[in-house]
Amino acid sequence: MASQDIPEEFLDGCARILADASATGRGLTRDELDSRRALGERAADAGYGLRALVGAHLARARAFAAAPRAYGAPGGVAPPVSAEAVLAAVEQAVDAFAEGYERAQRLAIRQEEAARREFIDDLLHGRSDFGLLGERAERFGLRLSVAHAVAVARGERVYEDGDDAPREVERALIARFGDRSPLIATKDGRLVCVTTADQGDVLDFFAKQAHAATDGGRVAIGRPQPGAGGVVQSYEEALSTLDLAERLDLREPVLRAADLLVYPVLTRDRQAMADLVLNTLGPLREARGGAEPLIETLAVYFDAGCVAAQAARRLSLSVRALTYRLERIHRLTGTNPADPMHRYTLQTAVIGARLLSWPAREF
């Protein structure tokens, strides 16, 4: 917007102030400064740009300097023009106007941040009426009538909205996708990305950027779910996936809930899983050093595809030592890790032990 397009109301009293200042050499009074600040706030609220507003003030100052009689002092007497006094008055007037403008901008930003934070809290916890939530969502570029998916990134530290990591990720997404950019926020110290279900490439890019910005943090992606309630479901699924990855010590930096559905199924009947763990692995508590070293041996052996040499390297053992441990497990439990008939039972029990934090937590 050009300076000539600025309404006269935001220049109200400017020429009079210049006329008085040039005649007397005085600075602006407190009331005059307050009036400039108030006009600056009103101009900011009206949506005018500061650059154009400052230009309008300078244009008015040039007009006054070119024709001072047109802006005569009270009583119609044209004041003697002092260039230094006029410049000093312009500087004070523009500074006060900009101060009011920036104050209004800061207040608007704080109000916007508060509204955004309240919306995100309601969205991710489903605490608001879904109809009203859908209306509010449009303000932040979301249409909750379609399916959405949520990705959550967790690093070694807690992140807030103003931190470098979320800002860096958001800038990268805006630069890459423009109008397709998702909603990026922080929640409980984690980075959160909400986007429509058809934008899998956006979630993949977020995962890559978030992993780097959090110094190698882990990212979980929930399954797409329809409606406002679907955002909550996808978010909770992503959180559960992060928790699952920690308990199972999964190494992958990016995990998809859809790829890990077997684990919630295994733990759906907690008592049945606890019985399987105790009946299958309980005898390992009789081993020297307890059950934990042997459970870790089994977990690594299964993760290595039951390849003894590879498992031994991961455990920093000789193949002979690993074989001895597997034989020890066979003797104690009566199930042979090398036997395909027994392997599924043992592997399921090991997964259950890790999910239930056994034997560190007895049940």
Automatic annotation (TrEMBL):
Top-level taxon:
Bacteria
Occurrences of domain CdaR GGDEF-like (ranges): 127-243
Q: Which UniProt keywords apply?
A: DNA-binding
Domain PucR C-terminal helix-turn-helix stretches: 294-350
Coiled-coil regions, chain positions: none
Offer an example of a GO molecular function term for this protein. DNA binding
Q: Which InterPro entries match?
A: CdaR-like_regulators, CdaR_GGDEF, PucR_C-HTH_dom, PucR_C-HTH_sf
Q: Which family does it belong to?
A: Belongs to the CdaR family.
Kindly provide the name given to this protein in its UniProt entry: PucR family transcriptional regulator
Organism placement in taxonomy:
Bacteria, Bacillati, Actinomycetota, Actinomycetes, Kitasatosporales
